[in-house]
Specification:
The protein has 284 residues and is an alpha/beta fold. The protein has one domain (12-272): Rossmann fold, CATH 3.40.50.10900. The chain has helices at residues 30-39, 50-53, 102-116, 166-176, 197-211, 220-236, 239-254, 260-272; strands at 4-6, 16-22, 43-48, 62-66, 69-74, 78-85, 88-96, 120-129, 139-143, 181-189. The longest helix has 17 residues, at 220-236. The radius of gyration is 19 Å and the shape is globular.
């Protein structure tokens, strides 16, 4: 049996598949926040089999009780939504990062992409980085072919080995199926443990620019400004935190293109911190 059930959606116009999973490589919920914003109120056209993808001890369902009686169970999910922007079809696949069957998932998503006639696959995510919230969010670009990365785009230099994420595995299987891929990865301040709206805004703007579509920004500009102000206020009252941010500002102002070694070092640093509560000193 297939991992998913899909509804009939008819003929599509130059469809693009956009993929983001909550979990590893979605620091600040940058990838899933962007995917959810783009999909907005789009119609769900495909649902995936949770029992085949999730370990419920790691991704536990939420049980709702009313007056001591179980009323509902919300299972971890993965689904694809369909939205039309400027007469262009966007297929947004998102949800929790699966625990199991990554290779099968990659194979089936790639086959689905071929069946639907997608012309491009875009992966989205966030990478925890030693960067201050007081500077614009920068985005690392990856692609299925080097010549697809625009001139002057920020990309890893040299060899990079990093812990794999399901979103990258799916992208690789899509590439093997002969479909072009892009990846946009926002650098998220490592001290922010909540949804980081400046990163979501930056990724939405990057997808808008890349596809040449008028994806609405909605309240993202206000949300990003409000969060920066909240972080400023928090840090102002914490001298040690303020000193860290000032140091990060100096590093950011002197930094050049990221190397593979630098990116790997940042990832390793983040993994060493995974035993903490992830709250940093940030706040929504």
């Amino acid at each position: 049996m297939a991992l998913y059930q899909i509804e009939e959606i008819g003929e599509l116009t130059d469809p693009v598949m956009i993929v983001a999973f909550e979990g590893w490589v979605s620091a600040g919920s940058a990838g899933t926040g962007t995917a959810d914003h783009i999909a907005a109120d789009g119609r769900t056209i495909a649902t995936f089999d949770s029992d085949s993808l999730f370990d419920y001890r790691a991704n536990r369902p939420t049980v709702e009780f009313v007056q001591g009686v179980v009323r509902d169970i919300h299972w971890p999910q993965m689904s694809m939504r369909h939205v039309v922007v400027d007469d262009r079809d966007l297929l947004v696949l998102t949800g929790a990062e699966p625990n199991w069957n990554w290779q099968r998932l990659g194979t089936e998503v790639a086959a689905l992409g071929v069946e639907l006639g997608i012309v491009e696959h875009i992966s989205l995510g966030g990478i925890p980085w030693a960067t201050p919230h007081t500077r614009p969010t920068s985005i690392i670009t990856t692609a299925s072919e080097e010549d697809r990365i625009p001139e002057g785009a920020d990309r890893p230099e040299g060899l990079l080995r990093a812990p794999g994420a399901a979103v990258s595995i799916v992208e690789e299987y899509v590439r093997r199926a002969g479909l072009p891929t892009m990846g946009f990865w926002a650098r998220v301040p490592h001290y922010v443990g909540t949804t980081y709206y400046p990163a979501v805004l930056a990724l939405v703007e990057r997808v808008r620019s890349h596809l040449g579509l008028g994806i609405p920004l909605g309240d993202l500009i206000d949300d990003a400004d409000r969060q920066r102000q909240q972080l400023d206020a928090i840090i102002e009252n914490q001298p040690s935190a303020r000193a860290i941010v000032e140091q990060l500002e100096s590093l950011a102002d002197d930094s050049d293109a990221v190397s593979g070694e630098e990116l790997a070092a940042e990832i390793e640093r983040f993994l060493r911190q995974e035993g903490t509560d992830g709250s940093g000193f940030g706040s929504e």
